[in-house]
Design a protein that fits this description.
Distance between the termini of chain B: 54 Å
Largest sheet of chain B: 10 strands, mixed
Structural class of chain A: alpha+beta
CATH class of the domain at 13-287 in chain A: Alpha Beta
Number of helices of chain B: 7
Shape of chain A: globular
Number of helices of chain A: 7
Largest sheet of chain A: 8 strands, mixed
CATH superfamily of the domain at 13-287 in chain A: PmbA/TldD superfamily
Oligomer: heterodimer
Radius of gyration of chain B: 25 Å
CATH architecture of the domain at 13-287 in chain A: 2-Layer Sandwich
Strand content of chain B: 25-35%
Chain lengths: ~575, ~550
């Protein structure tokens, strides 16, 4: 099956790691009930054939706020609450268990999610639901293990014969946070007003303005003795403007504000000004010339570079991709060897809650396998040092380093948290542009590129696909030798990892954060990447895919509302 | 005070010639303005022009509360409100238009948008988006349809779309009522707690839901409607493992009356019945092959009638294609004997309530702007009247106001509130006596009382979980589980021997998710072939229930 690793602009913000709120895990009612059921079940389950040798419960209580508006009207407004249980059962033994990749199927890592009854009372309803979920998970794990056993009869020799699992060391931790509170009566009118700003602009095909909050607590109980309660919170005010050109090209401008409290929200004036800037950019793009395929020197602006590192390098140093023979293993045998330009050091540090005052979405205290997060130096001065590890060991790396992550209902694999690029030598950004001009002239190119913004992209890591990436910039400028800048539309960045990273000539001192959501086989997880702007000796640009459908015949109705159709 | 207006107006070829005033609200203003603009300006060079547009806006309000084993679900939400929009656009001319044709690329469904902003410009933008999309599709469909007709040498003289007197139905839309959260919580906790100490119940939950759909419709021939439909329901779900280790889900549902004081006893009855059936399943023995008469209790009879009759009396005008599998099998059987004469089948789209329960099929004006007419679908066993739309299947055929659409189909013929009305309704005791008499006549040791009937032939829905054997010798009853219906055909409709006086109401949706109501009593059917299900026993729990 083809696997694309996607990074989307689903922005959010992260609760800061506060010293406050430590609690006693043994006092937590969900922990008590989960522990009771785990103890009762596990002693029987581990004696079964095949044995359930590891059992874990992840219970999440979540409260959300969703407000979506368009053109002065509310599309959706609600405050759902959920409490869901996921049961992880491993059958067999750590050497070979039910999670092993089958010859014919990679994705057998789905779990059922159980909506849970509330906690008050004797807890019997809650425990019965846990019991039922445990039975189903154990049965499923045993069935999967039998498939793995049958599959192993005809499986070719694995190049990495490491165990399937290393039982995580027991951890006990408890932290609580006060719920985030926002005055929605104030936010709603501001969003409604901003949403009316698209009126009078025929080039805006669609628009959406939203305020969302997702917060709650995660409880983790496993048969190794781990007992955790950790809070999570994300809040975001954002907007998306969509355009469409006559030749079928989709254009997007977005804005987002990650906040943790009311005072961090943008003022109405700021929001309206930002929306206006995005409208101006969308209009510019809708009239801009189309990009031509070309290789030329380029600047990747800081946030674009952050996405570049995430896609091109980050996914390829995820531990499980060094293990299964289905993966391209670009970096598997390159530990100790230079893999990127020597001015760069790359660290993934999920313990960072903020960078430069900006909350980081990739922050977490314990991963989804109950392992404490810690900083991992992936690349030091250009030399590959380490991989991101979940609890699935690989040759030479036997322990998790706290990067086992998954979205609800999926099995954790190694994923990024906060990926940070550190340049040993930097120049002011203006100087980087001067260096770009010099490089354009040196190479005799008609122009170079400045990649201002990226919405995301994907990278392919399977053996049967080219080990290539494609990133989707949303705002690209051509820079001419005389210093003139011109927006172009429909430009995609393409390349291969080993070549691309060695084309970095210089870095600026303008570190910036990209907060996003990354999609891969273990689902969508919140991530951050921090990087400076860099100068690339060469960047390959190709044309973006265009739709073959005609744009709308008539302009949007509200285009005539202010100043007539444009 | 609620105001109701019901108007008829003369058909008008173009424009919004309204004999009755359109409601003055944001929904109708937006629909009217966007419709006017589209009819005036929406046209591409060399393409067919749109000649007919209809908009439907649906404002859905919904709230549910559930509990399991006496504890409220930890998941909850505010009442949800969502506005969605649909458009029907025909391009070309009434004689030869873009509709009534399907191809692999296009579903025969309206362009729709599921989350529309509640403002004049928000609604306009949504309508613009789906109208534009619909027009581009219609232009392409028009060309493909003409090509298909040429390819198949079709020279049909029937017009595609015929005039019909346009009607309106307008009623003030009440606000979604205040949700009685505390009462709902109390009931679901109380009733779900009844399963708490029953060892064979692995899960037992009770859910109560309140819904209101506000409908706004306007077409370019002048038909329009505005009204709200209310509904409330109780759903009981039980996961049961029987003594032999077989595991099933029992799900039972009832539509509740508007009068809230009558709701609690109905929920209680439903819970009692589900618990009784769960207890029967626990004790039940596995079924054996059987050919003979059966008594279907109303819930089983509803799925039986739905599958064999209602599903075959819809989509009367087949779509132009090599084979329209969605067209009802009885579409060209008017006047033929399709059912036993023991009961007539009527369709009553103008009926709003039955025994105080709001009906899903209430549809005073259809989705082509035509006043709905009551139909005698089956009389004396013969297929009498079919639902008809403005798209005639035969020369001279006119609409009887039964064109209905959903997100999954453009307006096509379907039923609304279907009543199976016995000529001589029998009491429960008489129905059982009738069944036993027939069994004795056939020299059978026992026959079956079915409490469920498979909703489809698909594997997932093909099993009857719970039934009862009734012995001819002494009338003794014995629960059995795991039956499949073999070789089912519409022949079984003609095998109905008797119908009871115990009609119950069931809210349903058809294959295209168009809502309708079925009111059906228990039925004795002369012959069904039943086979034991192939399902194997499930593994027993590793550890006992807490």
């Amino acid at each position: 099956m083809k696997k694309f690793l996607l990074l989307g602009l689903l922005w959010g913000s992260v609760l800061p790691l506060a010293a406050q709120g430590l609690c006693n895990v043994a006092d937590q009612r969900p922990i008590q009930l989960l522990e009771t059921e785990l103890n009762r079940s596990f002693k029987t389950l581990k004696k079964q054939k095949p044995s359930i040798y590891y059992l874990a419960y992840i219970y999440r209580e979540e409260q959300d706020t969703n407000l979506y508006v368009t053109e002065g009207g509310v599309r959706k407004e609600n405050h759902p609450q959920d409490a869901e249980l996921q049961v992880i059962a491993r059958a067999g033994s750590p050497k070979m268990d039910n999670t092993r990749t089958l010859k014919t199927d990679y994705n057998h890592g789905y779990f059922s999610l159980y909506t849970m009854p509330s906690l008050p009372g004797d807890g019997k309803a809650f425990r019965t639901a846990v019991w039922r979920a445990t039975q189903a998970a154990a049965e499923a794990a045993q069935a999967e293990y039998s498939l793995v056993q049958a599959d192993s009869v005809n499986a070719s020799k694995r190049s990495d014969n490491s165990d399937d699992f290393v039982v995580p060391p027991p951890s006990v931790y408890c932290r609580e946070e006060s719920p985030l509170t926002f005055d929605e009566a104030k936010i709603k009118p501001m969003l409604l007003k901003a949403s009316e700003q698209v009126q009078g602009h025929a080039f805006v095909l669609d628009s959406s303005f939203s305020f969302t909050v997702s917060q709650g607590s995660r409880y983790f109980v496993d048969s190794a003795g781990t007992r955790l309660k950790t809070p999570f919170a994300y809040a975001r005010l954002s907007y998306t403007l969509l355009g469409y050109t006559a030749d079928g090209l989709e254009l997007t401008r977005t804005g987002a504000y990650d906040v943790l409290k009311e005072s961090e929200l943008p003022s109405e004036e700021q929001l309206l000004a930002d929306v206006q800037k995005s409208l101006d950019e969308l209009q510019t793009l809708s009239q801009a010339p189309e990009a031509e395929p070309m290789t030329a020197p380029a600047i990747l602006k800081n946030r674009a570079m952050a996405v570049f590192v995430h896609e091109v390098l980050g996914h390829r140093v995820e531990g499980h991709r060094q293990k299964d023979d289905d993966f391209g293993k670009t970096f598997t045998d390159k530990v100790g060897q230079p893999v990127v330009a020597p001015i760069l050091t790359i660290v993934d540090d999920a313990t960072l809650a903020y960078f430069d005052g900006i909350p980081l979405r990739g922050f977490y205290e314990y991963d989804d396998e109950g392992v404490k997060s810690r900083p991992v130096t992936l690349v030091e001065n250009g030399v590959l040092k380490n991989f991101l590890m979940s609890s699935s060991p690989i040759k030479g790396f036997s322990q998790s380093n706290g990067h086992g992550r998954a979205s609800k209902g999926l099995r954790a694999v190694a994923r990024m948290g906060n990926t940070r690029v550190i340049a040993s030598e930097t120049v002011p950004y203006d100087e980087l542009e001067q260096m770009l001009l010099a490089e354009i002239k040196r190479q005799g190119k008609p122009y170079g590129f400045i990649i201002e913004d990226l919405s995301g992209g994907f990278t392919q890591t399977d053996t049967y696909a080219p080990q290539a990436f494609k990133l989707e910039p949303t705002l690209v400028y051509r820079m001419y030798p005389d210093g003139r800048k011109e927006a172009v539309r429909g430009a995609d960045m393409v390349g291969t990892p080993l070549v691309s990273f060695n084309k970095i000539l210089a870095a600026a001192d303008d570190y910036a954060v990209f907060n996003g959501t990354c999609g891969a086989e273990s689902g969508w997880v919140p991530v951050s990447a921090i990087a400076p702007s860099v100068l690339l000796e060469a960047l390959e640009i190709e044309k973006t895919h265009k739709s073959s459908y005609k744009p709308p015949v008539l302009p949007p109705p509200s285009a005539a509302k202010k100043g007539g159709a444009k | 005070m609620r105001k109701i207006f019901l108007f008829l107006m003369l058909f008008s070829v173009s424009g919004l010639a309204a004999a009755a005033p359109l409601p003055d609200n944001v929904y109708f203003r937006a629909m009217k303005d966007e419709m006017t603009r589209s009819l005036d300006k929406l046209h591409v060079k060399n393409g067919p022009k749109p000649y007919y547009i209809a908009y439907q806006l649906q404002n859905e309000h919904h709230y549910c509360q559930g509990a399991s084993f006496g504890q409220l679900s930890a998941s909850s939400d505010d009442p949800s409100h969502q506005l969605s929009a649909r458009v029907v656009l025909a391009a070309g001319s009434p004689k030869n238009d873009s509709m009534g044709f399907t191809s692999d690329e296009f579903r025969y469904a309206p362009s729709a948008l599921g989350s529309v902003a509640q403002s004049y410009w928000g609604i306009r933008r949504a309508l613009w988006s789906i109208t534009d999309n619909s027009y581009l599709n219609a232009s392409e469909m028009y060309e493909k349809k003409q090509a298909y007709k040429r390819q198949k040498n079709l020279t049909d003289e029937l017009p595609d779309f015929v005039p019909a007197q346009q009607a309106s139905f307008v009623e003030e839309i009440p606000p979604f009522p205040d949700v009685p959260r505390e009462q709902m919580q109390e009931w679901v906790q109380k009733f779900s707690a009844r399963g708490k100490d029953i060892p064979y119940l692995e899960s037992f939950s009770v859910n109560l839901c309140l819904s209101q759909d506000d409908w706004y419709y306007l077409n370019s021939d002048g038909g329009f409607y505005q009204y709200a439909t209310l509904s409330s329901s109780a759903i009981v779900m039980a996961q049961v493992r029987n003594k032999d280790g077989y595991k099933i889900w029992l799900q039972r549902q009832v539509s509740l009356p508007k009068d809230s004081t009558q709701r609690e006893p109905m929920v209680q009855t439903l819970v009692d019945r589900t618990l009784q059936e769960a207890a029967q399943f626990y004790q039940a023995t596995k079924a054996e092959p059987y050919i003979g008469p059966v008594l279907m209790m109303p819930e089983a009879a509803a799925d039986f009638i739905n599958r064999l009759l209602v599903a075959n009396v819809r989509n009367v005008k087949p779509l132009l294609s090599d084979e329209d599998k969605t067209a009802g099998a009885f579409r060209n059987k008017a006047g033929m004997r399709v059912m036993s004469p023991v009961a007539d089948v009527l369709d009553k789209p103008l009926l709003r309530e039955y025994r105080g329960v709001p009906l899903w099929g209430f549809k005073p004006v259809d989705d082509e702007g035509v006043l709905a007419q009551d139909l005698t679908v089956v009389s004396g066993g013969k297929l009498h009247e079919l639902p008809l739309s403005r798209r005639p299947a035969q020369k001279g055929q006119t609409s009887n106001g039964h064109a209905h659409m959903s997100d999954y189909t453009l307006p096509r013929e379907s039923l609304s509130n279907v009543f199976v009305e016995p000529k001589t309704p029998l009491s429960q005791a008489e129905m059982e006596a009738k069944l036993l008499a027939r069994c004795r006549e056939l020299e059978l040791d026992y026959c079956y009382i079915l409490k469920e009937f498979p909703v489809s032939a698909s594997w997932a829905n093909s099993t009857i979980n719970i039934a009862e054997r009734i012995y001819t010798k002494d009338g003794r009853r014995e629960p059995v589980f795991g039956l499949k219906v073999s070789e089912l055909s519409t022949r079984s409709l003609r095998d109905i021997l008797a119908a009871g006086d115990d009609a119950e109401l069931f809210d349903m949706t058809d294959a295209e998710y168009r809502p309708y109501t079925l009111v059906v009593p228990s039925l004795v059917v002369d012959e069904l072939e039943l086979l034991p299900s192939d399902k194997k026993a499930d593994r027993k729990p590793f550890v006992p229930k807490p």
